[in-house]
Amino acid sequence: MREHLVLIPVFDGVQVLDVTGPHEVLAYATRRLGDAPGYAVRLVAATPEPVTTDGGLKLVPDGPLPSSGEIGTLLVPGGTGARDLPPDDELVGWLRSAADRSARVVSVCTGAFPLAAAGVLDGHAAATHWMYAGQLGAAYPEVDVRPDPLFVRDGRVWTSAGVTAGIDLALALVEADHGVDVAQQVARSLVVSLRRPGGQSQYAGPVWTEPARKPGIREAQDLIHGHPDTDLRVPALAAHAGMSERHFSREFARELGCPPGDYVEQVRVDAARRLLESGPAPVTVVAVRTGFGTAETMRRAFVRRLGVPPAHYRRHFAAGPS
Predict the structure, then answer these.
(1) List of residues 6+ apart from 310 with CB closer than 8 A
(2) Per-residue b or e along 292-304, where b marks 16 or more CB atoms closer than 10 Å to that residue's CB
(3) What is the mean pLDDT of residues 198-221?
(4) Considering 109, 112, 118, 167, which one is annotated as catalytic?
(5) CA 28 to CA 16: how far, in whole Å?
(6) Distance of alpha carbon 207 from its chain centroid, rounded?
(7) pLDDT of amino acid 195
């Protein structure tokens, strides 16, 4: 049995962790396999010169973009140099050909963009960094873009969310190829979790929405963030803003991009996440402190927003014993 050839095309503006994260997972797996065939990972590029990553580090390719030969896994990283590549770009053309010769096609983060430009993702479900999911879907309507999961497997096509999600994806590849025991050994060696499920949310951080420009909406926004445990239904928020309920709902959505109820729920989920991560308070207490009222209401919101219930979230992200 031959080593499994993994080709990673690199280019100026590539995200370094999109390359090195999966590379380390596959390298550790190969060492764990001992005498059994592992992975032969090769960086390839259009020119032999070192490429400059978007963080300023330089990567030296192992060789040129091969024009023939079978490929086990084609792994396409993202980065600033991956977005906005035209269909006639040299890399896109090579990906179109290389994908046909690959047993498995993988992208990390915005590496989905050049694969989509090559037509490889047409008709497939695909993940990318949550920040660029809308852009990917608008540019390539033939792709079923999934903005939330850490990674998606659709047949031989695997795609992941942003940056560190490439490590989750690479561990899933190792598990698929060599079983859970090897993947667990690799995860322990790298001091990462095996495994955040692919369908799990990307665990977006705090609500990063800019402050509203309209004073009344800004006052309601401040109330939501400062007192998530109070009455934040539309009548109360509209009264706080000095507006009618209908006018408030319309202006809130215009300013902040979503209805008041959705915004309130996301803020409360974020507040609950912080409490679950930082302290031992029971889930029922966290639910009351963050305005959900009951543990069941909070559970439904967590599943809807993060893909996992609060207890699961705490097990993976708590700073200490719960």
Answers:
(1) 272, 276, 283, 286, 295, 298, 299, 302
(2) beebeebbebbee
(3) 68
(4) 109
(5) 18
(6) 16
(7) 46
Neighbour tally for 193: CB within 10 Å:
14
Count up the domains in the chain and report the number. 2
The pTM (predicted TM-score) of the whole model is: 0.66
Tell me if the bond preceding 195 is cis, omega within 30° of 0: yes
In a domain, 200, yes or no: no
Catalytic residue list contains 109: yes
Q: Would you place residue 277 in the very low, low, confident or very high pLDDT band (cuts 50, 70, 90)?
A: confident
Q: Are residues 44 and 155 in the same domain?
A: yes
Based on the fold, state whether residues 104 and 247 are members of the same structural domain.
no
pLDDT of 40: 96
The CATH number given to whatever domain includes residue 132 is 3.40.50.880
Q: Give residue 112's identity as a one-letter amino acid code.
A: A
pLDDT (0 to 100) of residue 193:
57
The confidence score (pLDDT) of residue 188 equals: 82
| Res 126: pLDDT | 95
pLDDT reported for residue 202: 54
AA identity, residue 289: R
Task: Name the residue range of residue 26's domain.
Answer: 4-190
Check if the beta carbon of residue 248 is closer than 8 Å to that of residue 260. yes
Residue 235 belongs to domain with CATH number: 1.10.10.60
